[in-house]
Amino acid sequence: MRAAVVVALLWGAPLWAQDCADPQTQADMTGCAALDFAQADAALNAEYAATRDRAKARGAAQADALLQAQRAWIAYRDAACKAQGLEFEGGSLEPMVVAMCKTELTQRRSEDLRRLYENQ
Predict the structure, then answer these.
(1) Per-residue b/e over 71-96, b at no fewer than 16 CB within 10 Å?
(2) pTM for this one?
(3) What is the reported pLDDT for 18?
């Protein structure tokens, strides 16, 4: 929940005013996108922790490789979504587009982590 509050404040949308079932303003839509990302990020963090535990069970080298891959993936996600948001640079859509991009990529990464050691 703390991450959701931080994300909502950073995006300029008060957490307590969100009606994400039917957002009516751009600010509400942006706030809801930020909340969606915060939820996806929390799920990713939980999935990463479980995957890290499985990697550690296979040895320090595998755990280190996973850590390096995750760090590189975060840099990729942030850069890719920044690039996507630049289509709307300076406009009210930019933060929403970036948050939606981060949500989508984060959800995909969670699924990738979930499957990483599935068949091993």
Answers:
(1) eebeeebeeebeebbeeeeeeebbbb
(2) 0.82
(3) 61
CA distance linking residue 4 with residue 86, whole number of Å: 24
| Contacts (Cβ under 8 Å, ≥6 apart) of 28 | 13, 17, 18, 19, 20
3-state secondary structure of 119: coil
> How far apart, in whole angstroms, are the C-alpha atoms of residue 53 and residue 47?
10
Domain 33-116 has CATH 1.20.1270.180: yes
Domain ranges for the chain, please list them.
33-116
Under 8 Å between Cβ of 25 and 17: no
Here the tokens at position 2 are 């703390």
CA atoms 17, 3, 114, 82: torsion sign:
positive
Per-residue pLDDT of 12-48, as tens digits, reads 545 545 679 999 999 999 999 999 999 999 999 999 9
Q: What dihedral angle (degrees, nearest 10) is formed by the CA atoms of 23, 16, 104, 106?
A: 180
